[in-house]
Write a structure and sequence with these properties.
Helix 1 (about 15-35) links the parallel strand 1 and strand 2 (about 40-45). The protein is an alpha+beta fold and about 90 residues long. Helix 1 (about 15-35) packs across helix 3 (about 80-85). It contains three helices and four strands. The termini are close together.
Length: about 90
């Protein structure tokens, strides 16, 4: 049975890199969803403007992508690297 993966995008409104990252994340999730035995990806998007702790930690690094609450990458999100990480056992 495929495992559940928590995928989180941390950014803020008006951030063009965040918009680009969202597009990459969505495309990768769509691609994975079309495969057999795909893991279930639970996606959450959070804004540093709504959370003082996130702002203090990530303000200079957004967008940030977390996989299961661990930083995967920030700034420019590589789709191949993200897909590989999401499909790793």
């Amino acid at each position: 049975m495929p495992r559940d993966i928590r995928l989180t995008l941390i950014g803020k409104p008006g951030c063009h890199l965040c918009d680009d990252a969202r597009d990459v994340v969505q495309a990768v999730m769509d691609e994975i969803a079309s495969t057999d035995a795909a893991p279930r990806i639970v996606f959450d998007e959070r804004s540093i403007l709504d959370d003082d702790e996130l702002r203090a930690r990530y303000a200079e690094e957004i967008p940030v992508v977390l996989i299961d609450d661990v930083v995967h990458n920030y700034w420019r999100i590589d789709p191949v690297r993200l897909k590989t990480a999401l499909l790793a056992d």
